[in-house]
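Slide 14.
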Amino acid sequence: MAAMRVGFSFDPPLAAIPGMLIEEGVDAFQTVLRDPGRFGNTGVPDADDRAALVEGLRGRGVWGVAHGSLLVNLASPEGRIRNSSVSSLLSDLKVAAEIGIAGVCFHVGYAKGHPSADAALVLATRKLGELIERMPAGPRLFIENSCEGSELGQTVAELARLIRDVGAPAERLGLLIDTCHLHAAGFDLSGDDAGDQLADALAAENVLDRVAAFHLNDCQLPCGAHRDRHAVPGAGTLGMGVVSVARHPAFAALPGVLELSVEDARSGLAFLREHGGVQPVSPSAG
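Slide 15: predicted structure.
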């Protein structure tokens, strides 16, 4: 049975990532291209570090993604924050284009400060459209679903609305689904049919083909808790639901990343391998 290619989340330096991929036996990864807790260019890898990653991955067929700043809020009532969010994502996309990774994932923002979620979504859509008009060729933007407070993009329907309203082509804008976030937001992924349920929901909103990757995180808390608390696959409230998603025909050709410490990710990878949820790494990737 088909299964995802599953990788780890590695912090910079970028130069260390090719060796860590070999050491852990994976061919997909996530990293950051700046200090995720700040706007501006703090923590951006220098030219030598970027070049070392490119050289280390040459010819290996590895899939990679960067996570955008956690401060991004394209719906902020403050123009300064909206504009800083666009600038931050643009900067990440430019580095992503240089190092040849798939793209940048990000959380859209918050409804806080707006009279309604609809008003926030309208503003976020406009800023996202501006961002896409300015982004470099090559890498894609991936909207990642959220789960806490007034965060936007918590439901499949809201993600689909963003995709439709922005109107960007698939080669520019896709979705990255975090299984923990979706479960915490109220979409129950704990059953053996979790993959079917998710694929059906995405297809019903006509965005199944926009899903480009996953964060294959289990969840520490019950469905609908609206708290972002990742757990090792198999050790949380999703249980075999994570495997069901990873093995589903609609998702099995996609990459997934375990957003955990390396030690916990090893445990999660072992669980997924035990249950046929991971695609073997090809020799060319290592």
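Speaker note: The radius of gyration is 18 Å.
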